[in-house]
Design goal:
Arc Repressor Mutant, subunit A, 10 strands, DNA-binding, alpha+beta, 5-stranded mixed β-sheet, 11 helices, globular, Jelly Rolls, 5-stranded antiparallel β-sheet, sequence-specific DNA binding, DNA-binding transcription factor activity, 297 residues, transcription regulation
């Protein structure tokens, strides 16, 4: 994410005060906070916190950067730190929001093979088995009840309940990721390509650079991307540049000229042509339509 973008960063949504408890975790019901905001949690991010949201009943829309996903009862949203996210809940939705400070989270997922430790994007997970849904529903409710009271061995019991939740979710993430060996290799290549895009999207490198970094040919990279996500490597690169451009236009006061330069374009006119081709409108119009805070062009 380019510097200069202003996205609200909270400990807990809507609060500027310090972490409200001596615990390294915070539990609340979905309704406690979302009802105060008309059941809508606007896009924001957390620094130093890992968040889990379990939707017990009702439905919601999860906003992740530029896309939206529908969330239904029985699903869990996993939100690593500094991921921009928001929620629109159906009125009277029921569920729990569990927020962990990273020192606690890291200690509980310290095993090298725990997939939760390496998450870098918001993920939605569907618990297909009733037994799994019932377990998590009970565990979240028991953790909430224990959190709200002061009783002997409270901290130890909270960590045990939390450990059970994290291990169940880690098992679910692992099961979802199991593929045939060839598919695993393809996914590893694609995952590495995604990392390279994140590192170099503003440098306008040729596809041959990325293929060489992966140790494969450009043709192989093209086939790999089309097979995995149905899009070409160039389309994925353009999508990442476009996403950063949109973020900058909406969340920052940088001019179009400055944004163009930060994204590696040789001149603002070239950037404007690229943006118009991708979106059907100019950067200025996009900023106006999306309520950007930006300055002049």
């Amino acid at each position: 994410m380019a510097s200069g973008i202003v996205v609200p960063t909270y400990k807990l949504y809507g609060e500027d005060r310090p972490w409200p408890t001596p615990d390294l975790l915070h539990w609340e019901s979905i309704a406690e906070r979302s009802r105060l905001h008309n059941w809508q949690i606007k896009p924001h991010q957390h620094n130093g916190l890992f968040q889990m949201l379990f939707l017990q009943s009702g439905s919601a829309t999860v906003c992740i950067d530029e896309r939206e996903e529908r969330m239904r009862a029985g699903q869990v949203a996993l939100v690593p730190q500094m991921c921009i996210h928001g929620f629109r809940f159906e009125a009277d939705a029921l569920g729990s929001v569990l927020t962990l400070a990273y020192p606690l989270f890291s200690r509980l997922v310290q095993h090298a093979d725990n997939p939760l430790a390496t998450l870098t994007q918001v993920q939605l997970h569907t618990l297909d088995e009733k037994r799994e849904r019932d377990y998590l529903s009970t565990a979240f409710e028991e953790l909430g009840a224990e959190y709200r009271q002061q009783a002997p061995y409270r901290e130890l019991l909270l960590e045990n309940l939390l450990g059970g939740i994290l291990l169940r979710l880690a098992r679910h993430v692992t099961h979802q990721a199991r593929d045939a060996p060839a598919e695993q290799r393809a996914r590893r290549h694609f995952s590495r390509f995604s990392q390279l895009i994140e590192q170099h999207y503003a440098e306008h490198r040729p596809l041959s650079f990325f293929a060489a970094e992966l140790g494969i040919t450009a043709a192989h990279l093209n086939a790999l991307c089309r097979q995995t996500v149905g899009r070409s490597p160039l389309e994925l690169l353009h999508e990442r540049v476009l996403l950063e451009a949109k973020r900058s236009l909406v969340y920052s006061a940088m001019t179009v000229s400055v944004i163009s330069d930060r994204l590696g374009f040789s001149d603002p006119a070239y950037f404007t042509r690229f943006f118009r081709k991708q979106t059907g409108m100019s950067p200025k119009v996009f900023r106006e339509q999306h309520g950007g805070i930006g300055g002049g062009d």
